[in-house]
Amino acid sequence: MSENISWRNIQEGDQFAFKTLFQSTYKKLVLTSIYYVENTEEAEDIVQNVFLNLWNKRNKLTIEGELIAYLTTAVRNQSLNVLEKRKTKKKYQEYLSFNSIDTNQYLSDPFFLEKLQNAIERLPEKCRLVFIKNRLEGMKNKEIAEELSISIKTVENQIGKALHLMRDALRDYLPLIAMAAFIK
After folding, report:
1. Counting beta carbons within 10 angstroms of the beta carbon of residue 10, is it exposed (0 to 12), middle (13 to 18) or buried (19 or more)?
2. Which terminus of the chain has a smaller tally of CB atoms within 10 A, N or C?
């Protein structure tokens, strides 16, 4: 039935043609999506979004060939996007879970705190001052540059130098340093 539906009719706003296309292809497209995402509700959402986008962008889209081929490709691509987002979200959650445990462990370790303090104290004076203002006091690079009458590039270089020296001094505690680099 979908072979008889004209893309031109849908582009011109023929709701009956669009409804017919939806009804004749919906189940097949949901099954296609389920193959990838392995979740019926998610697959139904994907197919509905593909149809919604098709209708909303009908005036801008150029579809060569069969509508069903276009829809199948769109559903497959959206399903793969969902899988990629799922994978990224899982990696991020694992990363947060791993690092929050390690961070808490290090922050309660007096030996680490002492090594951290020693590493900060061993930094060259200007480097230490910039690092403390940025990482411990939470000042922005521009604010530090203005306060110390130096360029923003110098501030950036000093922070980079400090992180490099501290990374060497705290080699055993690199997971915490990685987390601290994001905390301001």
Report:
1. buried
2. N
Please state, in angstroms and rounded to a whole number, the distance separating the CA atoms of residues 25 and 17.
12
pTM listed for this prediction: 0.51
Token code pair at residue 108? 């309660």
Q: Residue type at 176? A: L
Lookup result for tokens 């069903």 = 68
Q: Which tokens go with 76?
A: 């497959």
Return the DSSP state at 149: T
Q: How many residues does the chain have?
A: 184
C-beta neighbour count of 43 within 10 angstroms: 23
Residue with tokens 């998610």: 42
C-alpha torsion 132→136→140→143, nearest 10: -50
Say if residue 52 is exposed, middle or buried (CB neighbours under 10 Å; 0-12, 13-18, 19+).
exposed
Query: Taking phi first (over 0 means left), then psi (-120 to 50 degrees means alpha), and beta for anything else, what does residue 43 get?
Result: alpha
C-alpha dist (Å) from residue 170 to 103, 133, 151: 14, 20, 28
C-beta separation of 177 from 170 below 8 A: yes
81-99 residue pLDDT tens: 999 888 877 776 666 555 5
| Backbone dihedral region for residue 122 (phi beyond 0: left; psi -120 to 50: alpha; all else: beta) | alpha
